[in-house]
Amino acid sequence: MAKLMKSIFVLFVMILCVTNISYSAQKEVLLKTTSTWDSAEYKKLNIKNPEATVLRIIINVNEELPMHKHDLVNIAYVKKGTLTVVTDDNKEITLREGEVLPELVGKYHYGKNTGNEPVELIVFYLGQKGTPLSVNK
User: Which residues of 40-70 are buried (b: 16+ CB within 10 A; e: fewer)?
Assistant: First the structure.
């Protein structure tokens, strides 16, 4: 009986140790939104055959991307550099390292490197499988 009690006690202590393990992993919400950066709300998403894509994009110093639009939801994380995004009606936003951009959907715009080092973006796309990630004007 003493052996059984000792075994139960050891098991109890082990359970306490396992459930009280502290982890060093940290998390930080970088973006939580229901709209794009120009306040256009996301419409109810009804994606029958969803596909997610993640791109790493480098924009060189003084480089300007072509005017384009996205017909799917995408979020850009600025890993490095300074990016300015300009719409076809001349609204603009400038982002720096560590900032996140809920990109425009269905509205023409372009991005340009307005800093003195290459811009490095990580862009997450979600839409219907086969939908082009961008369409040039």
Answer: eeeeeeeeeeeeeeeeeeebeeeeebeebbb
> How much is the pTM?
0.78
Which residues, given as ranges, of the chain have pLDDT below 70? 1-23
Asked whether residue 83 is assigned to any structural domain, the reply reads: yes
Instruction: Tell me whether residue 2 is in a domain.
Output: no
pLDDT at 45: 78
CB 104 within 8 A of CB 134: no
In which domain, by residue range, is 69 found? Answer: 50-136
Question: Which residues are paired to 67 by β-bridges?
Answer: none
Q: Is residue 27 part of a domain?
A: no
Q: 94: number of CA atoms within 13 Å, CB side?
A: 5
The dihedral region occupied by 79, where left means phi > 0, alpha psi between -120 and 50, and beta the remainder, is alpha
Look up the CATH number of the domain holding residue 91.
2.60.120.10
